[in-house]
UniProtKB/TrEMBL annotation:
Keywords: Membrane, Transmembrane, Transmembrane helix
Top-rank taxon, per record: Bacteria
The species this protein was found in: Malikia spinosa
Transmembrane segments: 20-40, 201-231, 243-263, 290-307, 319-336, 342-360, 367-387, 415-434, 446-466
Protein known as: Glycosyltransferase
C-alpha cells in the first residue's frame, strides 16, 4: 500500500512560467562569459591550447597534447568540438570560435534538465493529491511547472556559472550527463513515444561522457539504470521492444567501459582520496562546505525533497535523479572534494529540488526568497560600488585596493557593457517589485529571485568587470612582457611550464615555443623556466650557455612569475 503523496497543488499554482521570460533568462545566462571573455588560467586555457594545437595541425587528434606533451585530461570529443569550430570559423578569434560549441552545450544542458524533470513529473506516482471536489493540477500543467522550477534551480546554483562557461571537458560532461538523465527519464516514462530515439539519446549520453573524459561516470550511471530496467522490464507492456532497447543501451555502456580502459582508467584511481580520508573530519568538512555553497539552493531543496518524499524514495521520479546525484557527489568526494566533479550532480539536484516545491510551507519559501533578495542584492551593490570606485577613483581606498591586485591595469569605460549591466540591474529591480507584490501563487515562484540574482551577478561580472577579470585571471599580461624580451623573431625554449602557461605564450604572446631537451640542439635565444622546475633545469640545458635575465611576474612582483634566461 502506497503512502499518500506529499504534493498538494491546485490548478492555479501549476501555471507555467512566461515562455519569453524563461527564454530571455536563459540567453542572459548563457551569452555573458561566451562573448568577450579570454581563456583564463588553468584548465580553461589548457584545454584551449589542445584545441589550438589540433586546429593548426601540430597536434594529434587521437592523442590530445600541448607542445608535444600529453594533455592532463584525455577527452577527445570536447577537444574535437573546439578544434573543428576554430577550423570552420577562421574569421573569428580562435578563443571565441572554440567557445561557441560550449555555449550550445550549456544551452542544451539547461534544455535537457527541463525535459528530464517534465517526463519524471508526469509519472503517476509523482502526481499531487486529488481534491475531493476537483481543482487539482492537471498532469501536464503540473509537470511543466515543475520543469520550469528545475530550470530555475539549475541556473540559481552558485557553482554552475564559471565552470559551465569554460571550454573544458567538464562543461561537455555537464551537457552529456543532462542528456543521459533526460534519456533515462524518457525511457522510464510509460507513455513516451519514439522510444528508439530515446535509446539513441541514452547511448549518445553514455558514450559522450566517456569521450569527454568521464568514462567511469558514464559506465556507473549506465550500469545502474540498466540493472533497474532489467528488474522492471517484465512488468512493461512492450516486453520484446524493451528488451531490444536495453540491448542497444547496453552496447553504449560496453563502449563506455572500453573507452575507460583505453583512457587508462586504472591509473586515474591514483588521483582518488587516500582511504584514510574516510575517517578524516577535515576532508568531510571540506566536502560539506563545497556541497553547501556550490549547489545552493538546489542542494538544500533536494535534501528537503528526500525528507518530504521519504516514504516514496523507491519511485522512479525520485530514484533516478537520486542515483545521478549520488554518483556525482561520490565522484566529488573521491577526488578530494573537486568542484569540477560535483558539476555533474547539479542537473539531478535541480530536478530533485523541483519536487520539494509542492510540499513547502509559505514560511520556507519566504526564507529562500529573502535570502536570495538580500544576498544577491548585496553582491550586486558591491560589484557596482567597486566598479564605480575603479572608474572614478572615489572612494580612494577601494580603488587603490583593486589596483593593488591588478598592477598595470588601466580601467576603460565600455558603453556597450555598461548598458547591458544597467538593463540587467533594472530587470532585477523589476523582479523584486513583482515578487514582493501580491500576485497569484505558482510552484516556481520561490526560485525566481534565486535564478534572477545568480544571473544578474554573473552578468555584472561579465560586463562591468570583464576587462579587469581578463587582465587578472588570464595569461596575457605576462605573455606580452615575455614577448617584449624576445630578440627579433627568435623561438623560445620552455622548461617546466604548465599547459596554460604555454598556451598563453603562444596565443597572447605570438611566440614560437620549443620544449627544452638535453639531446636537442636549438637556436632559440630565450629560455623561460617555471621557478618550481629549477631543480631539474641543469639536467635539461647547459647552464653555461645561459645567463639569468630577470624574473617576469604574472601580475605582482612578490607573487608567482616566470624566470627568463638569455643565451650568452
Amino acid at each position: 500500500m502506497h503512502s499518500p503523496t506529499p504534493a498538494i497543488v491546485s490548478q492555479l499554482a501549476a501555471r507555467r512560467f512566461p515562455r519569453w521570460i524563461l527564454l530571455l533568462l536563459g540567453l542572459i545566462y548563457v551569452l555573458p562569459g561566451l562573448l568577450g571573455r579570454q581563456p583564463w588560467s588553468g584548465p580553461d586555457l589548457a584545454s584551449f591550447g589542445v584545441m589550438l594545437d589540433m586546429a593548426q595541425g601540430s597536434g594529434d587528434w587521437l592523442q590530445p597534447q600541448v607542445l608535444g606533451e600529453r594533455a592532463a585530461v584525455q577527452a577527445w570529443l570536447p577537444y574535437w568540438l573546439g578544434a573543428a569550430s576554430i577550423q570552420l570559423l577562421p574569421f573569428l578569434p580562435a578563443d571565441l570560435a572554440a567557445r561557441l560549441p560550449y555555449g550550445l552545450l550549456l544551452a542544451l544542458a539547461l534544455h535537457w534538465t527541463w525535459k528530464a524533470t517534465y517526463h519524471l513529473a508526469r509519472r503517476p506516482n509523482a502526481q499531487p493529491v486529488a481534491f475531493a471536489f476537483g481543482g487539482e493540477a492537471s498532469p501536464q500543467d503540473y509537470a511543466r511547472a515543475l520543469a520550469d522550477a528545475a530550470l530555475l534551480a539549475l541556473i540559481a546554483s552558485l557553482g554552475l556559472a564559471q565552470l559551465a562557461h569554460e571550454s573544458t571537458p567538464d562543461a561537455a560532461q555537464l551537457a552529456f550527463a543532462s542528456l543521459l538523465l533526460y534519456a533515462c527519464a524518457r525511457l522510464a516514462s510509460p507513455n513516451a513515444q519514439w522510444r528508439g530515439l530515446s535509446a539513441a539519446a541514452w547511448w549518445l549520453g553514455a558514450v559522450g561522457l566517456a569521450l569527454s573524459g568521464a568514462p567511469w561516470i558514464g559506465l556507473v550511471l549506465g550500469m545502474g539504470w540498466l540493472l533497474w530496467s532489467l528488474a522492471m522490464v517484465r512488468s512493461g507492456p512492450r516486453v520484446r521492444g524493451d528488451v531490444w532497447l536495453l540491448v542497444f543501451c547496453a552496447s553504449g555502456t560496453l563502449l563506455a567501459a572500453l573507452l575507460a580502459w583505453q583512457l587508462e582508467l586504472p591509473r586515474r584511481f591514483e588521483q582518488l582520496s587516500d582511504w584514510a580520508a574516510w575517517t578524516d573530519l577535515a576532508h568531510w568538512r571540506r566536502f560539506g562546505r563545497l556541497l553547501l555553497w556550490f549547489s545552493w539552493p538546489a542542494g538544500l531543496l533536494a535534501l528537503l525533497t528526500v525528507w518530504r518524499w521519504r516514504r516514496r524514495l523507491g519511485n522512479t521520479h525520485l530514484l533516478l535523479p537520486l542515483w545521478f546525484a549520488a554518483v556525482g557527489m561520490a565522484s566529488c568526494w573521491l577526488l578530494d572534494a573537486n568542484d569540477r566533479a560535483l558539476l555533474l550532480a547539479l542537473p539531478a539536484l535541480a530536478c530533485l529540488a523541483a519536487f520539494a516545491l509542492p510540499t513547502l510551507s509559505r514560511s520556507v519559501t519566504a526564507l529562500v526568497d529573502w535570502f536570495a533578495l538580500l544576498f544577491f542584492s548585496g553582491c550586486a551593490l558591491l560589484i557596482w560600488f567597486y566598479w564605480l570606485a575603479l572608474q572614478t577613483g572615489l572612494p580612494a581606498k577601494p580603488a587603490a585596493n583593486v589596483l593593488r591586485l591588478l598592477p598595470g591595469f588601466k580601467p576603460e569605460l565600455d558603453w556597450t557593457l555598461l548598458l547591458a549591466a544597467l538593463l540587467g540591474t533594472l530587470a532585477w529591480i523589476g523582479a523584486l517589485a513583482w515578487r514582493l507584490g501580491r500576485y497569484r501563487p505558482a510552484l516556481w515562484k520561490g526560485l525566481v529571485l534565486s535564478a534572477g540574482g545568480s544571473t544578474l551577478c554573473w552578468l555584472l561580472l561579465m560586463t562591468l568587470w570583464l576587462p579587469a577579470l581578463n587582465y587578472g585571471m588570464g595569461q596575457e599580461p605576462i605573455s606580452r612582457r615575455i614577448a617584449a624580451l624576445t630578440p627579433g623573431s627568435s623561438c623560445v625554449l620552455v622548461h617546466g611550464l604548465s599547459a596554460s602557461q604555454i598556451t598563453g605564450l603562444q596565443y597572447h604572446g605570438g611566440l614560437e615555443l620549443e620544449r627544452a631537451r638535453r639531446q636537442r640542439r636549438s637556436s632559440c635565444q630565450l629560455l623561460v623556466v617555471e621557478p618550481k622546475a629549477l631543480n631539474t633545469l641543469a639536467q635539461t640545458v647547459d647552464l653555461s650557455q645561459w645567463r639569468a635575465l630577470r624574473k617576469v611576474p604574472r601580475l605582482r612582483e612578490n607573487r608567482d612569475g616566470l624566470l627568463v634566461y638569455l643565451r650568452r
